[in-house]
Write a structure and sequence with these properties.
- The complex is a heterodimer of chains A (507) and B (114).
- Chain A is built from 19 helices and two strands.
- Chain A is an all-alpha fold.
- Chain A has a two-stranded antiparallel ribbon with strand order 1-2.
- Chain B has a single domain (3-91), classed as Helix Hairpins (Orthogonal Bundle), CATH 1.10.287.
- Chain B has three helices and no strands.
- Chain B has helices at residues 3-24, 28-53, 60-91.
- The chains are: A mainly alpha (507), B mainly alpha (114).
- Chains A and B meet through α4, α5, α6, α9 and α13 of A and α1, α2 and α3 of B.
């Protein structure tokens, strides 16, 4: 077994095995499962980072069976970057969850809502982790579909671990959107297979899909994935689901789960379809711009802490789609409809856009965990109820602030580097509309982050009841926030891995 | 139009009808069944796919996909039905009536579980 085979196996099957261990339903099986899942995912992603840096994209034929009958795992720089950030966020949230769900010895009270949440969070999350890693390592459309479906089922179940009627309804709505999205994706896969007779992403890229059937297929898959990524205007399910879930689940859903379908969109649009059409790229960018404005304004109007952060996710996901038109050679219009042979994808837009996705994962997980600490302490979720928590929970306050700093794009955060690269690309391509949107979005982000911080600092209104928060939960949030705030300093390594394979790894 | 084209178009029709049901029917059982049927529509298309390109060669790949798809659909339907029951028991209604968009912070907010 080569190194690449070992690491891809660890990344996908490690968390899957760990999920089975965690189903044991005893405190030690939960801890063992989370440790095994975190360990294998971290080892797998770091191992692949080394392998891909050394030899470029790697391939693993599972059981020695190649396509079309066997399943191949495949990793390039984009896969490795997503795997790694998922592993880092995942390990921190796993640690956090051990304290968040309270005394694990109450597991046997499986009938009580708290006991059930404590018992099923770990197995569901580990299953979800395996599905995410499966998406990042998929080399064919059907494997993507199966991973996507596991991801959606586990994610919806995580939301309903919170027992309120609101969270249950939000989880059900999420499940329906997610399943319909998967079905649209599957129909797109069926149409592509009818037309081109292959499922392999690489062979499809070589076939350079064009024509009405290919376009219909891309449209179906895009709508399905956009619904799962909560791209405006298909975002309405996200805020109630992400705000209603238990804090560790919120962190995972907002930080890493939406990135799975985003990854598929990027792979399809660029690696397989070679950029599709200029009009399509502009449309995606326009929806991203609308998401930034709409999500930010609504975030400012929320009165509950977690909903502010959830709407912020809608807004920040918009930035990832602004990358679409900016990636095109020399801005849009210069190259015309570009086939896969078109060599001049913008490195700035690519590294900047993906770096934003990575930094959003770190920052948003930190912010949801910090918010979880605040609501854990005061047992309420409204902004006015967290008044004065800043002096009680200085570490969580700092974590929230640092995460917000990265979202808003202040140096030296990774968010700053990512936004700066996108801005530079937009300016050099003369896309002043995108420049305006990126800037306004940044200002609105600062506004809603400050809104939360102002409440937290409001000592006069400080309420009496306060439950001590386990130190482990504070540290998990702060470490991720520090990672997000300082990743910008080490951005070069991330760029190097992202350029292994780049935008169109198969051309 | 060959019989196989008919097969594929029937799949498209089933998919669209089921999608229509998911969107327009409020009852959760309708929605779950609709999603299930959408999958069936895709399976019809997949089975007709290889023969449309070369009717004389059997292609095991779509059959494998359909079999896997059925397994996935069973799991998804089971979970969706289970969650629909949960919605029923927690809200007392088989519709998604509690508006999760209402901006008021819940007095009995979702936190914390223990």
């Amino acid at each position: 077994m080569t190194g690449a085979e070992l690491w891809t196996t660890a990344a996908v099957f490690g968390p899957l095995l760990a999920a089975l261990v965690a189903l044991g339903g005893r405190p030690w099986t939960l801890k063992a499962g989370l440790a095994l899942g975190s360990g294998t995912a971290l080892a797998g992603s770091l191992g692949l980072w080394v392998e891909v840096t050394r030899q470029g994209p790697v391939r693993h034929l599972l059981g020695g069976w190649g396509a079309p009958l066997g399943i191949e795992l495949w990793a390039d720089g984009f896969s490795v970057a997503m795997l790694t950030v998922t592993a880092v966020v995942g390990a921190a949230v796993s640690l956090y969850s051990l304290s968040y769900f309270g005394d694990l010895s109450e597991l046997d009270a499986g009938a009580s809502p708290a006991g059930r949440a404590a018992r099923y969070f770990a197995p569901l999350w580990l299953l979800l982790w395996a599905a995410l890693n499966g998406i990042y390592l998929s080399a064919d459309l059907f494997n993507l579909y199966v991973s996507l479906e596991i991801l959606g089922l586990a994610a919806a179940a995580l939301v309903t671990l919170a027992v309120t009627p609101k969270a249950t309804v939000a989880g059900m709505r999420y499940l329906i959107v997610s399943l319909v999205g998967s079905m649209l994706f599957l129909l797109g896969v069926a149409l592509l297979y009818t037309e081109f007779g292959t499922l392999s992403l690489e062979e499809l890229a070589a076939a350079a899909p064009a024509g009405p059937m290919a376009a219909a297929s891309l449209a179906l898959m895009t709508v399905g994935m956009a619904a799962k990524t909560a791209l405006f205007p298909l975002h309405a399910w996200l805020p109630p689901a992400h705000a209603g879930a238990p804090a560790p689940a919120s962190a995972l859903l907002s930080a890493v789960v939406v990135k799975g379908s985003f990854f598929i969109l990027v792979r399809l649009w660029f690696a397989v379809y070679g950029g599709a059409s200029d009009g399509g790229l502009l449309l995606m960018g326009g929806l991203g711009a609308a998401a930034i404005l709409w999500g930010s304004v609504l975030a400012l109007r929320q009165r509950s802490l977690k909903r502010v952060i959830a709407y912020s996710t809608v807004a920040q996901l918009g930035y990832l789609f602004i990358m679409f038109p900016l990636l095109a050679p020399e801005g849009l219009g210069a190259g015309g409809a570009s086939g896969p042979a078109s060599p001049e994808w913008s490195d700035d837009a690519w590294t900047g856009g993906i770096l934003l996705a990575l930094s959003h994962a770190l920052a948003k997980a930190a912010m949801f965990m910090a918010a979880g600490n605040m609501t854990y302490a005061v047992a309420r979720d409204a902004l006015r109820d967290i008044s004065g928590v800043a002096h009680r929970l200085p570490m969580s306050f700092l974590a929230f602030g640092l995460g917000g700093l990265s979202l808003a794009g202040l140096p030296p955060s990774a968010g700053f580097v990512g936004k700066w690269l996108l801005l530079r690309e937009a300016i050099s391509a003369g896309g002043w509309f995108w420049v305006a949107i990126i800037t306004i979005g940044g200002l609105l982000t600062i506004a809603y982050v400050l809104m939360v911080l102002r409440h937290a600092l409001d000592l006069k209104a400080s309420s009496g009841d306060f439950r001590p928060v386990p130190k482990r939960m504070e540290w998990a949030a702060l470490l991720l926030a520090l990672a997000a705030a300082t990743l910008g300093v080490r951005a070069t390594e991330t760029f190097q891995i992202l350029l292994q394979g780049g935008v169109t790894p198969w051309s | 139009m060959t019989p196989l084209d008919l097969y594929a178009w029937a799949g498209v029709a089933v998919f669209l009808l089921a999608l229509h049901a998911v969107v327009t029917r409020a009852h959760l059982i309708w929605k779950v069944l609709g999603i299930n049927l959408m999958g069936t529509g895709v399976f019809l298309i997949l089975l007709a796919a290889p023969a449309r390109r070369d009717p004389l060669v059997a292609d095991p790949l779509p059959q494998g996909m359909v079999l896997t798809g059925i397994v996935v659909a069973v799991a998804a339907t089971a979970l969706a039905l289970g969650m629909a029951l949960r919605v029923m028991s927690r809200t007392g209604s088989p519709f998604l009536t509690v508006d999760p968009e209402s901006a008021d912070p819940d007095p009995d907010a979702p936190e914390p579980p223990s």
